Amino acid sequence: MRKLVAFEHLTLDGFASSGQGTGFEWTHRAYSAELAEYAAHIQADFDTAVYGRETYLGMYGYWANQPNEESSPQERAHAEWVNAVDKIVCSTTLESAEWNNTRLITGHLAEEFSQLKAESGDTIAIYASPKLVHSFLDLGVIDEFRLVVHPVVIGSGTPLFPDKTALDLELIESKSFESGAVYLRYRTA
């Protein structure tokens, strides 16, 4: 059975999005070359990327036109990966998903993802998309959290875990980076 993983960047005060601009501007402070290199390890077993509408539109708008001659080696590698990987966008308002290798799911998340998890393949990863993570938390189908905690406090935004979320987690991996970011990998107990 495949795993469903939430791969998130978080502020120290638990927000996955600032709710302003792209929502992730605060990640630049601690997103170092060391962390970018380690990201390949974090997502080494991912064969399907899942996005909510907002994250999908931002990712598609940027990565579908990458790499370019100004891309760093890490950006180039990620661009090649993200443009080739199977992608799913979950949205009740999008009418189509134009990015290559992308499937649109408009409802019935529990059924769709139960079926996907039962198929052969590797890990299915939700990228960012905190509101979508909330939906999957309500369904109880997330198997792991792979979190990069950044040394910033933003005071408000969209939390990864909404009020009254209760989970028992088991730490299976951690790593700190010179930039002050910390990677934490938890399995749901």
Automatic annotation (TrEMBL):
Top-level lineage group: Bacteria
Domain (Bacterial bifunctional deaminase-reductase C-terminal) ranges: 3-182
InterPro entries: DHFR-like_dom_sf, RibDG_C, Riboflavin_Biosynth_HTPR
Protein name as catalogued: Dihydrofolate reductase family protein
Source organism (scientific name): Nocardia jiangxiensis
